[in-house]
Write a structure and sequence with these properties.
The protein has 349 residues and is mostly beta strands. The protein contains 3 helices and 31 strands. It has a single domain, classed as Beta-galactosidase, Chain A, domain 5, CATH 2.70.98.10.
């Protein structure tokens, strides 16, 4: 395994270094300590041609100014929390809100806006970039001083493993994810509509006003949300389903039927032959299809077009703290949070 570094930019008068892990198969993963952001993942296609298969802006300045969440570590809580409120031990907690009266992706200064500490590790069959940071009590309205570690591990089996660890000194919430966008063509000027997606899921979370979960988990069989068999993403995104039309694509959680090392998602693109297989210990994956053009910044000289990427955001179901059947995202002082998500890169047979 190879670990290299290069200067990426400046943040608050500190140098930000990009770290790159490369395995013997020519697959590499690059990340920076600002936001513990994955800046690129390079993999070969079926002809051995290498390309970056993720979406990201090209400068630290754009990441800071526009906060697109591309490749970032999201927390303390991924997704939306209704009205930025929840009740714990009979007391209502009011979090800082930052989108239509709700809290989105951890609030105004989420983990994606922090400069994390970083170290690397190189073993015989894998190498890691290990990020750590502390979120102080009161930050974004959350109780508890939270210490977080996120390890990005690249293996010789072409696996990217994300390993989360956290602990707190007071009852708080924790439900992180990585907001990675894939575009397996290796060309972000092409859309992901001709990608194929398969999910180990038979239910999805319905959305209501302000894009909030309604609390209803609906059977996806026979609907546009049915990915039990591999199908083109365009079949869902361009459908007439009112849930999809209201947000111009997918922005929905899918309940995962298996956990651990079982395959829960398969994303593939036939022309390049590239494939990503996801396994996670979380109970859902949020699929978001970059539903509008982003013209506030440019990538390769152009705005990031509509459907430029697709996320596979593994997490506990969004707004779980306000939905009784969605899962438990409370973290207690006596607990240590552990979770793992894995993406394996390959080419179609």
């Amino acid at each position: 395994m190879d670990i290299t570094t290069k200067f990426f930019g400046m943040f608050q008068n500190q140098e930000v270094i990009e770290y790159t892990l490369t395995n013997s198969n020519g697959i590499s993963l690059s990340a920076i300590p600002y936001g513990a952001i994955v800046t690129k993942i390079v993999t070969p296609d079926k002809n051995g041609e290498k390309a970056n298969i993720t979406l990201n802006v090209e400068s630290l300045e754009d990441m800071v100014a526009h906060r697109p969440f591309y490749g970032a570590t999201i927390g303390r809580v991924a997704g939306r929390i209704t009205d930025g409120q929840y009740i714990v031990e009979g007391q209502q907690v009011q979090l800082d809100v930052n989108e239509k009266g709700n809290q989105l992706h951890g609030g105004p200064v989420g983990l994606d806006t922090k400069l994390w500490k970083v170290k690397t590790k190189n073993e015989e069959d894998h190498a890691s970039i290990i990020f750590s940071c502390k979120s102080l009590a009161g930050e974004n309205g959350y109780p508890g001083n939270l210490e977080v570690e996120v390890e990005y591990r690249l293996t010789e089996k072409n696996e990217w493993k994300i390993l989360y660890t956290a602990h707190t000194d007071a009852t708080t919430l924790f439900n992180p994810t990585n907001h990675i966008y894939f575009n397996l063509t290796g060309d972000i000027k092409q859309t992901i509509l001709n990608h194929k997606l398969q999910l180990s899921s038979s239910k999805y979370g319905m959305l209501g006003d302000r894009n909030l979960p309604t609390g209803v988990l609906k059977d996806s069989s026979g609907t546009a949300f049915d990915f039990s068999e591999s199908k083109l993403v365009r079949e869902a995104v361009l459908s007439d389903d009112p849930q999809i039309k209201s947000v111009s694509g997918l922005d929905h959680p899918f309940v995962l039927e298996q956990k651990g090392e079982a395959v829960q998602a398969v994303l593939s693109e036939e022309k390049s032959g590239r494939q990503v297989i996801m396994s996670t210990e979380e109970n859902s994956v949020v699929i978001f299809t970059h539903n509008k053009e982003m013209d506030a910044f440019q990538i390769q000289g152009e705005p990031a077009k509509q459907y430029a990427g697709i996320t596979l955001e593994a997490q506990t179901l969004p707004d779980a703290v306000n939905q009784s059947k969605f899962g438990n995202i409370f973290l207690q002082p006596e607990q240590t949070y552990h979770s793992q998500t894995m993406y394996r890169f390959s080419v179609l047979e």
